[in-house]
Amino acid sequence: MKPFLLVLGSLMICSCEPETSEIGSDFFTDGVLDFTYIDSATVNLSTIQLDEIITSSTSRMLVGTHRDEQLGRITATPFFQVTSTSALNFEDQNLTYDHLSLLLPLDHYSYYDTLLPLTLNVHRVSQEIKTEKGYLYNSSTFQIENESIGSITLRPRPNYDSIEIKLSDGLGMEIFQKAMNGGDELSGTNFTEYIRGFAVVPDTVNSSCILGLTTNPSLKLHYYDKSVTPTVKRYTTFNVGSASGLFFTNITCDRKDTPLELMPSPKDRLSSRQTNGTAYIQAGAGLSLRIDLPYLRTLKQIDNFYFTRAILEIYPVRKSSTVSTKLPTQLKVFKADKRNAIYEEIEVMATLVEDIELGRDTYYAFDATEFVKAQMELQSLNENALILTTDKTTYPVSAERIYAAAPGYDYKTRLRIYFATVNN
Q1: How high is the pLDDT of residue 301?
Q2: Distances (CA, A) of 49 to 250, 284, 288, 290, 328
Q3: What is the pLDDT of residue 14?
């Protein structure tokens, strides 16, 4: 009995009442199986900062800024190149300039409060946009000109099709004159040498929201065609997505005066004990939840213990989600080592179970059976853990955040370990 008591103490276990069953009596001729579970195994939560996240070759770009009450300010700035699909030559045509605009199509994603005004400033990129082995990251950035060439303040409506920003007539007339002169600066790679790209920089004076943009913004040169009667208004477009078109989202965070102000390197972790009993996920910014389940190997020391299943339940902090900061319906789970290096992706996801009526027992449920069993069977001590993020397809280019509550009096974050014993 001593081994059982020893493990009982190290795990801080408390059990439910067992259920006796005749199932398995053919194998255990000296008794019947009792099924029960323990739900106070040690569960440690911490926040980790993932290394650079690829934001090129993604499904969207982000733009906007918001100061989160616990995570500080997050700001998303899209960078992109536009090019002409064919030579632009207005020579010998009867045309007059109207205006230049930047069209930012929306993909109807938003996070945080869209009722707050958002100011966007367009800047020309003054440095060549170069990839790193074919990719650009949330940390990538390039020099921009100090002076804005266009600005707009709006209360975003994600159901709108697009945002159109009128740009400087100085740049517009310059492009128009080059087209009228029949030069080759406005075609193909020549255009990206002339205009290296654009950045749409949110004004961070106020707190607003994060919006999703499609990956095909366009520069539109508007003019009047006087060769026909009546005069017709036309435009020509420079798009992202042609041979040399590039796009990505730079995402920065100011964590000053927040629990995460002293965030460690990507190889370390910040325990929830240091952050008021809370650990965090923040998509786009690369914050992820790490869950350590120590002492699982000691379960093998228990006599008459037959492990059957394990369910991990993770409770978000109550009232931490709103209509504009909804909890994701699922979380992606990975296996990682002590230095947060992911070594396996788990197919099963953690699923949100909502307490619609009272809002007290909302949690994420994850079937941790395979992970727990593998940890129990290991011959040597290790610090393998589970890492949780939002859906990996949108994690790089979204702003969802979760405040995950560590186990305590108010929150039942726990690991339920189901097992059987033979009752003689």
Answers
A1: 80
A2: 16, 11, 6, 10, 19
A3: 39
**CA distance linking residue 167 with residue 152, whole number of Å:** 10
CA distances, 250 to each of 39, 165, 194 (Å): 42, 20, 23
Low-confidence ranges of the chain (pLDDT < 50): 1-27
